[in-house]
Write a structure and sequence with these properties.
- The structure is a single chain.
- By secondary structure, this protein is mainly alpha-helical.
- The protein has a domain of 50 residues.
- 46% of the residues lie in helices and 4% in strands.
- The protein has a two-stranded antiparallel sheet with strand order 1-2.
- Helix 1 packs across helix 3.
- The protein is elongated.
- The protein starts with a helix and ends in a 15-residue tail after the last strand.
- 4% of the residues are buried.
């Protein structure tokens, strides 16, 4: 797919997503000017988008944030799924230094 075609598919895909589900097929026909290969490319993206759903939400760190005590030494010996915290390597974050 060349760059122009990619931008065309991408633009139509995002415009289709703005339509109500029951209006998408008719909108797609109009937007693609009855070009079957363009319709198929956009429909492929729509199917992929539906399958992807919201697989990244909520972030995994959110589920651990409530489970980890505020005192870093208090997590030694705790398990998280198949993992066990055996020893504290370092405390702090965002590149902060420990003196």
């Amino acid at each position: 797919m060349n760059g122009d075609r990619f931008h065309q598919v991408d633009e139509i895909f995002h415009r289709v997503l703005q339509q109500r589900p029951e209006e998408r097929a008719a909108f797609l026909e109009r937007a693609c000017a009855h070009d079957p290969s363009l319709i198929e490319e956009v429909e492929t993206l729509l199917r992929s988008d539906e399958r992807a759903g919201d697989f990244l939400e909520p972030p995994a760190v959110d589920s651990l944030a409530d489970a980890v005590p505020s005192s870093s030494g208090a997590i030694t010996g705790k398990t998280f799924g198949p993992y066990e915290v055996q020893t504290l390597l370092r405390a702090g974050g965002m590149g902060g230094r420990q003196w």
